[in-house]
Amino acid sequence: MTEIAAFFDMGGYAAFVWPSLGLTLVIMLGLVVQTVGQLRQRQRRLAELEAEGAQRARRRPVAAAGPQT
Question: For the chain, what are the domain ranges?
Fold first, then answer.
């Protein structure tokens, strides 16, 4: 049981470690939520455009890299 308490104490640095870990997790979760929201919004917009008859742009072939003459 003392090993667990020592782990959570983090060698006396728990007051710095746990809040920073919590803040990092909150920020990362916020970024995931924002990214998924933007993805869904853009997918809806794409579906609207395709329903209106817009076509997706085709990718142009990439020119071969090499010396230009």
Answer: 2-51
